[in-house]
Structure formats: structure tokens, C-alpha cells
Amino acid sequence: MTNGQLLLGIGIYANIAISIGITAYFQYKKLEELENHLDGNESVEWNRRVWGCGYMGRLMRLNMIFVTLLMARRLHRNGHLAKDEEKKIPEKLRKKLLVVYAYETIVVLSALAFHFTIVSK
Amino acid sequence: MGRAYVFINDQMQGDSTIKSRLGANKKFNTLNIHIRNRIVMPGELIIVPDDSSQSCTLEEAELMRVARHVSHQVSHNSLGADGSAVKNHDVLQRMLNYGALGIGAVSGSWSKHLSGIEKTLDDIQKLHKLSLTRGTPIARQEFINQRQVLFAKLDDQLKGVARWGSGLDNRGSIKKMLGISTKSYLHTGEIGNYARRMEGVAKAAKLLKHGTAVGVGLNILSSGLEVKEACSIGREDKCEKAMYVEGGKLALGVLGGLKVGGLTASGAVSVCVAVFAIPTAGWGALGCGIIGGIAGGYAGGSMGEAFGEATGEMLYEWKPAQ
Fold this sequence. Notes:
Shape of chain B: flat
Radius of gyration of chain B: 26 Å
Low-confidence stretches of chain A: none
Oligomer: heterodimer
Largest sheet of chain B: 2 strands, antiparallel
Strand order of the largest sheet of chain B: 1-4
Largest sheet of chain A: none
Mean pLDDT of chain A: 89
Order of helices and strands of chain B: EEHHEEHHHHHHHHHHH
Number of helices of chain A: 5
Helix content of chain A: over 70%
């Protein structure tokens, strides 16, 4: 591995650390707000009860809200979500959450690409 | 001067077999008091003494302490006589380390679910006991109705992936699965296999509850052991290098495991929603999240570890000479 590749890797892992921090902010500061907007939703209630309030529990609850936003049409078609129910969450907050997950996905995909093209060779 | 060393017993065998194979002497017997007159299980440590001295060295005393502790762990945790835990130690450790990071959420949720199964089983047990002490026809009908409710609840708790870790195979009648029959209850005073099943469920719940902490703890412990081993050899450069390498592996392995595990958990749920049309509430989504979390945590942890190792080595080479 060259010095440049090492710095690239450090940059990717620094982004992983930053994304863990951003997600933690959402887990502890925004999760309740997001859930309150979807109050009465079966998925929110069930996941809150089952996953609990630990670090990972909050992460999974946030994950489920993200999946609800991402797959809203599919969930509505299958009868698991009322029409436009996800729109109860203000658009700004919805976009923020989607941007955070998009950033996470890019970071993780970069780490994967870096691993298979540089580290494992 | 020679030195004492240990090896891991890889199969179930009597202590006399080991002694005859190694040509044991008095010192061997003293150091291996933890296996005296019994069957030695796979995973237990055997100490081969330093024969240049008859007295017990400090190092040997330390090895005795470690061997005793390991024996206790092996017997306490029932690691199995087939030696699979020893043979698959590397894989198990990796799965436990990084898988546990990804699956972390399970520590709360799945153990809660298993505790729920445990509670239902307990209610069934209580209902059986109560009904048998009363014995009237009305009480019997009431018993059947109540049992039906509990069976329906248990059936729901054991649907699909939700039965994982419970040790219960939800196929056919629940009565048959639990080994419940009034006749056997009257005969033995307890529901057949009940204690064994309860024990299994409780054990799995307990294990999962501490999944993440155990994973991170093991990770730190194994890094610490690697550094300790390198430092005990006595070469300062090896010791320092191990600190860089193991430190890098630990830090980036945990980071990778946490991030990739968390993200793949949500990715797996999305895929399950899209492919199997499951709702985001329920045991199906939970199971998908767990599988995604384990796989991602394992992959991310291994990935981070590999880069951490390379980074540690390069940083060690870069460090200014003192």
C-alpha cells in the first residue's frame, strides 16, 4: 500500500467515524421527534416496544423509520402504511434523514471498494 | 534454560492418556492439578513444565491460574465434548466479535422476545399445575380454553424466524412440541422436557442480552493478549509494533463492524419489505435486520481489521526514530 492509498483509507475511515457521530445525533436528538410525527403507526409502536432505548435499539428504530420513508409506496400497496402517512414528517426532516443514509451508504460503499481494490490485494 | 508452555487439548480424553503420552512426572501432576482424575474436555489447557527446575516458577504459577480459569469456563459454559468450539475457535471468535457488533440491537430485542416465550411457557406450566389440583369438569373446560389462548400466543411467538434461539421446533402440535401430556404430568410431576427447554430459552436470552458488550470486550481482550504476547518475548521493537498493529486492528475493526452492521441491517429490512412484502413491524423485519446486521458486522469488522493492521504497520515504520 502506498502512502497515498493509506491516506485515502484514513479519509474513508474518518468519514465512517463522522457518520457514526451524525447517526448518533439522530438516534438521540431526532428519533423521538420522528416517531412523534408517526404517532399511532403500528410499526413505530412495535419497534419502540421491541428494540428499546439502548444504542443499537435506537439505531434499529431509526433504521425502520428510514425503511418506512424509503419503501413508503410499497408498504402502502401492501396495506402496511396509510396513504401519505410518511408525509406527516416535515419534508425538511425527511430529507435530512434520507441525506444521512445516502451519505452512510456512500461511505460504506467506498470502504468496500477500497478494501477489495487495495487492501485485499 | 527451558521454559514451560501450554497446549490446548483438542479432544475428550482421560487425564491418564495425556499423562502417558507426555511421560508425566511429579511436577507435571502438580501443575496440572486442574485435570487430575477426570475426563479432560476439548479446549482445556495442559501445562508442560520446565524440567530444568524442580521448583515451580512464577510463569508456571501464572499458567496454572490461567488453566484453572479456562477449565472453569469450559465446564461452566458447556462448550461441548465434540471439540467443535475449539476447532472453530477462529470463526467463532470473529463471529462473536463483529457479528455481535452488527447484531447489537438483538441484545435488547431478541432477548426480550425470548423472555416473552419463557413467560408463556411458564404460564402454561402454571395453568397445568392449577388445573390438575382442581379437577372438576367446569375447571377442565376453563383450563382447555385458557390453554388454547396460551398456545395461540406461543404459536405467534414462534412463527418463522421468531423461533430462532428458543430451541423449540414449531411444527405440528404445540402439545407435542412441548412434550406436554396430562398423563406424563401426573406420572412425573412435571411437564416433559420442560426444564430443559426453559433452560435453553433462558440461556439464549442471557447470551444475546450481552451480545454487543461481549463482542467488544472479546475484541479488546484479544488485542490485549496479542500485545502482551509480543511484549513477553522481550524484544522492545516487537512489543511496540504489536501495539500499533493491534491498536489499529481494534479501532478500525470496531468502527467498520458498527457502521457496516448498522447499515446492512436497514438494507436487509428494505430488501425483505421489497421482496417478501413484509411490514416493518413484526418478527419478519426483526429477523431480516438481525441477519443483515450479523453479516454486515462481520464483513465490516474484518474489513476494518485488515486496513487497521496495514495502517498500524505503516505508522510504526513512519514513527520517528528515538
